[in-house]
Design goal:
Elements lengths: L7 E6 L2 E6 L5 H21 L5 H43 L4
Antiparallel strand pairs: 1-2
Helix pairs in contact: 1-2
Length: about 100
């Protein structure tokens, strides 16, 4: 498939439109991701401390990545706690006298 026939989706970031090659079954995810990124970029832009679309995009990417890594860490911690609780419950069942 050449570039002329490749399916595309238009997204908007900070008021600029971009045409992105994207399979039709991934378009909803791409559009949702673009809206999320645009909101993050708009928030940084509104604070006025960062100038230039490229710098705003980098700051948004760093913030989103940080949030993602924190969520992964929290999930791992929750999984560890759940595993420990499961082990304690299994041990309690083993230690419980049978009637």
């Amino acid at each position: 498939m050449n570039d002329a026939t490749r399916p595309t989706t238009e997204i908007t970031l900070l008021g600029h439109s971009y045409i992105i090659a994207c399979p039709p079954d991934e378009q909803d995810k791409l559009e949702r991701s673009a809206r999320y990124l645009d909101r993050a970029m708009q928030g940084i832009h509104a604070r006025g401390k960062v100038l230039g679309a490229e710098r705003i995009a980098i700051m948004a990417a760093l913030n989103i990545t940080n949030d993602y890594l924190e969520a992964l860490e929290a999930q791992r911690s929750d999984e560890q706690q759940l595993s420990q609780l499961s082990k304690r419950l299994e041990q309690a069942l083993v230690d419980t006298p049978q009637r």
